[in-house]
Specification:
5-stranded mixed β-sheet; 32% helix; 5 strands; 3 helices; alpha+beta; Alpha-Beta Plaits
Amino acid sequence: MRHVKLKIYGKVQGVGMRYFIKKKADSFKVFGYAKNLPDSTVEALLIGDEENIDYLIKEISVGPSLAKVTKIDILQDKEITNTDFENLGYFSFEIY
């Protein structure tokens, strides 16, 4: 499994970005969260299979129709074990 934390820049708040990420994450069995940050960016934690996360990052780079993603920073990217996954406690995708 893979654990990736992203910071998404551009016009990404007030355009449905977190709900877009959740819908895509749910369809690909990716767990974690998406939340708005005070600096007008969105942070997303993605946990799942490598191919599904790669696809989800490509989808996020486009975003919903009202969004304009200008940059995505990968803050963390690491392989995790099943035990690590269980200890993280994300068994769904949450919106904060």
